[in-house]
Amino acid sequence: MEQPTKKRRYIIALDQGTTSSRAVVFDNSGKIVQEVQKEFKQIYPNPGWVEHDAMEIYASQYSVMTEAIAQCGIRPWHILAIGITNQRETTIAWNKETGKPIYNAIVWQCRRTSAIVEEVRKAGLQDYIKENTGLVLDAYFSATKMKWILDNVEGARELAESGKLMFGTVDTWLMWKLTEGKTFATDYTNASRTMLFNIKKLEWDKKLCDYFGIPISCLPEVKKSSDDFGTVSIFGYEIPIAGVAGDQQAALFGQACFKEGEIKNTYGTGCFLLMNTGSKYVESKNGLVTTIAASYNNEIQYVLEGSVFVGGAVVQWLRDELHLITDSSDTEYFAQKVKDNNGVYVVPAFTGLGAPHWDMYARGTIFGLTRGCNRNHIIRACLEGIAYQTMDVMDAMKQDTGLKILDLKVDGGASKNNFLMQFQADVCDCKVERAKVMETTALGVAYLAGLKVGVWNSIDEIRTIWAADACYVPKMDIEKKREYVKKWHKAVKMCQGWEKEE
Ligand SMILES: Nc1ncnc2c1ncn2[C@@H]1O[C@H](COP(=O)(O)OP(=O)(O)O)[C@@H](O)[C@H]1O
Ligand SMILES: O=P(O)(O)OC[C@H](O)CO
Q1: Could you tell me which CATH number the domain at 256-501 has?
Q2: What's this model's pTM, rounded to 2 decimal places?
Q3: Where is ATP bound in this sequence (predicted)?
Q4: Any ligand 1 atom below 6 A from CB of 331
Q5: Do 10-223 and 256-501 show the same overall fold?
Q6: Is the CB of 417 under 6 A from ligand 1?
C-alpha cells in the first residue's frame, strides 16, 4: 500500500444537517477537494412537530461519504481520518439488540414536548437546569424528547429498564451504525445540548436523569471532540473517526474562533450566534445559553450561544409553500427591487421563538400589510427578519459580556445573500466578514479530526488558513435604523403567546 506522503493527506467530514447530509473531503491546506450532498425527507406529523427517519439519516450520510471518496479519486488510505458534525439536540432511540430505531428522530425544532416543559417548570427545576446544564428550559433540547419517547412509544420503557435501549444525538447514532455497534459515544459539545449533562462537572447529571426517568446506562460515553471514536471500514480500509462536534461548535472552530470574545454566526436552517468565552463560564441574564466549545485538548472552553430557530428556513418557506421564488438566491434580487420594506415585518416564529425570547407559543406573523405591499416587500421583510433576530441575540450577548462587538464572522447557506449580509452589518452596527470556505462546519470538524491524527499540529497553524471572501460595513443612517428596530420589537412582542391556551 502506498503510504500517505506529506502532500497527500486528506480528511473527510460528514456534516449531517437538518435538511441534508453532506460529505466534504479536505486536503491538508483546508481546501475542499470534493463535496457531495443529499437532501432527505422532513416529516411534519402534526402542527409544530418535526421528525426525520433515522435510517434515512444514516443511509444518506453513508452514501454521500462513499460517493465523495469514489468521485474524488483519492485512495482510501490517503484519508487519514473521519470527522462527524451534526444537527444538535435531535434525539434518536434504538434497540441495542436489533439495531433498529424504535421511533423517528425527534428534531430539535419539534415543539411536541411543550407540555412536558410546563411540568418541569412546575416541578421547580428551571433554575437547577440553568445552573448545571447552562441551558434554558425549552422543548428544543433532547431531555424532554427522550421522556416523550419513554412515555409514548410502546415498549420503550421496558427496553430502557432491561438495559436494551440506546439514546443518542445524531453523532452517536451515526457512529454506532458506522462502527457496526462498536462505538457508543458522543462528545462534550453534543452532550451539552441534551439538558442532561452537567457542564461544570462534565458528567451526566444524576438528578436530571432520575427526574426524566432516563437510566444513565442508556446514554453514551462522553469524550473530547478530538478523540478516538473507533474505526469505519470503507472500501476495505479501516479509517478512524477522530473528530466529533455539534455543528455550531464545529463552525465556531472552523471560523478559528479559538480565543475569548471571538464570535461567529451561521445562517443555515436556523441562525446560531456563538461567542467563545474561554475558560470563563458566563451565565446569561439575557436569554442566552452557556454551552461547551469543541475541545481539541484537555482544556474546557465555554461558549455563549443565541439560537434562532428559523433563519434560512423562512427562505425555503417562500420557495416551497408560498412559491414566491424558485430558488433561494432569488431573494437577494427581489429584496433589492424595492427601496425598503414598505412597513412590512415578518417574524418567522414557525416553531416558536428561541433566544433571547424563548416563547414556545409564538408563531410566525406578517405585520404591516397595506394595499401597496407586493411580494418583494414580503421577501425583503423575511430576509430582514433573519437579520433582526440575529441582532437581538447579539444585543443580549453584549449585555451579558460587557463587550463591544466590532466584527462578526459569518457562514452557512444564507450567508451567500449579499443583501442579507449588508442589512446584518447595518442593524448590528458591526463589520460582517464572510469566510472564504463557507463549509465552515465541515471544516471545523475536519480540523478537530486532523489535529488528532497529526494533519495539523496546532491551532496556530489552523488560524493562518482562515480567509475572508467578503466584508460588509455598516452604512445605514442611525435614525432610520432606530425607527426600523423599534417596529421590529413591536412585531416580536405581538406574535408572542399565540398558541397558548387561554
Ligand atoms: N442565496 C441565499 N439567500 C438566502 N437564503 C439562502 C440562500 N442560499 C441558501 N439559503 C438558505 O440557507 C439554508 C441552507 O443552508 P445550510 O447551511 O445548507 O443549512 P443546514 O445546514 O441547516 O441544512 C436554506 O434554508 C436555504 O433556504
Ligand atoms: O443543521 P443546522 O445547520 O440547521 O443546525 C441545527 C442546530 O445544530 C440545532 O441546534
Answers
A1: 3.30.420.40
A2: 0.93
A3: 18-20, 269, 312, 316, 413
A4: yes
A5: yes
A6: yes
